[in-house]
Amino acid sequence: MSKSKLKNFLYDHLVPLPPAKSTTAVLTTTVEQDEKENSQYVVATGIDRYDKGDYQFRIDTEVDNVASDSSSTLIPSVYTTRRNLKNRHVQLIGIGGTIGTALFVSIGTSLYEGGPLSLLLSFAIWCIPVFFVTLCTAEMVCFLPTTSPFITLTGILCDEALEFMQGFNFWVLQGALIPFEISGVHTIIEYWNSTHNPGIELGIQLGLYFIISMSAVSYYGETEFWLSIGKVILAAGLMLFTFFTMVGANPHRDAYGFRNWNEPSPMVEYLTTGNLGRFQGFLACLIQASFTIAGPDYVASVAGEIKGEVRKKNLPKAFKQVFFRLTFMFIGGALCVGIVCSSRDSQLISAISESRPGAGSSPYVIAMKNLDIPVLPDIVNALLVLSAFSAGNSYTYCTSRTLYGLAKNGKTPKFLTHCTKNGVPMYCVLISLCWGLLSLLELGTNSSIVLDWIINLVTQCQLLNYFLICSTYCFFYKALKYKGIDRKDLYFRAWYQPYLAILGAICFFSMIFINPYLLYYPSKEYWSLETFLFSFLLLFVDAALYIGYKIIFRTKWRKVSEVNFDKYLKEIEDYEEAYLNSEEYHIDNKDKKQARYWYHRFLNLIVGDDD
């Protein structure tokens, strides 16, 4: 690589610049510019494309036979994030960010505490309020797919102070999950080698997250797409493993069926005896479900960087398909672990008590060892490494884009809106990666305690975020009605609203106080100051941020007559209009008329397509 090319590469990827003053939509394709092209363009138009203060234009040199009419690719380029994520990227990012190691490893603890039936019921029941919040998010985000859409809509519909509070809460939620998954990779690798240096892993992971996050969003999307396919393979493979072994396809030729459901019983006692003990076992499983099962966050977080017909096709399709795929995986996973492993298996109990690393605590791996199946445990552990790494990668992206969205809306310092030439908010990425350093706390002797703290913190943040989304939807519904916008004309219209939003808000608000219920237990055995702080401290911090912002900036709760979508709607409408009139649109759709074979449709059902 020549010095000039290296210089241009470093400039494009490592030099953040402020955005242009105008907020026109940005169509993004990878374009190589040099001084010669720029000088020719200045002669032709009188506009300098390297002038960072005003509008810049570039000519797409990668599209052959560019026409000179309105379909030519004269594309406005500003230093902001770019719409370059395809539909298949979005769908797999939604899966990649939601599924970490909890569905395959931590779920064993819930199996022990509640039994197979309690585990299955809790996961199935918790999917219902998650479905409600998915409907609310999908309708709002498909209407206004901007950066950090559900946070931005809180400011538009309710109060800017509430927007600031929700943005901070979601930023902490995503940021705290980065060290959780980094330490998860460490413990998974310990399954093979317990003497390795954890600091090396930490450095390698943070370095890889930095490289991926600093690449153009299309490269991030492609990377996460393939990493998430590993999770789909792992989830599907474990379900197939469950089916084949339960009907006798195992070295012992033992068709064990649902035997483990009755050993000792479908619902086991936890903390106490009798019906109260079985109820507490179910409650413990429900708390685990509220941590494990996530919904629309990750699809919504990428809304500002999706290309194509965002509102009409890509986002509605992504919300529907991602939710039903995740629901199948979560409920299927909860069913399968209860089939392959008894809740009172001696290996499971010792794995939990000893905090065995990686796949060693997974009910699936314990079942494989009980059946004397070789090699498979190592394959599962390898896929768990990819699963944890992929989840951390998604959290890094969401954390940086949340911070960027807050800065774009004037809630955090302006320099955080500066992006590199390829559309990456570098300062936001660097600040977000600092969360990864907290994983050092989890590498000590009390790592399991720190892990519990983070789980409590994340669960409470997630519940509060879902409560705010459902509440915001009620104001969204009211604003549409006031403005005379018929919901039948929306690209995504949820059922039975606003009743499902109200019901969802009640469920999430109630769960905020149910989650740490052991703190209310009469026995002081379950009380600790740390558990109390990580269960409730952030709620007090959120309240303080809301009140403080309101006092300092004198914000007022918006009346429905003051709600104004125009600025953000114009941005997305300009983008979609420019896209539909561009050469890129014709290239993206040139093969739509070609016949697709059955296996194309099957693959699209599993991983999504580009349309």
From TrEMBL:
The keyword Nucleus does not apply. Gene3D superfamilies: Amino acid/polyamine transporter I. GO terms for molecular function: amino acid transmembrane transporter activity. It is found in: Membrane. It is a multi-pass membrane protein. InterPro entries: AA-permease/SLC12A_dom (IPR004841), Amino_acid_permease_CS (IPR004840), APC_YAT (IPR050524). This is Amino acid permease/ SLC12A domain-containing protein.
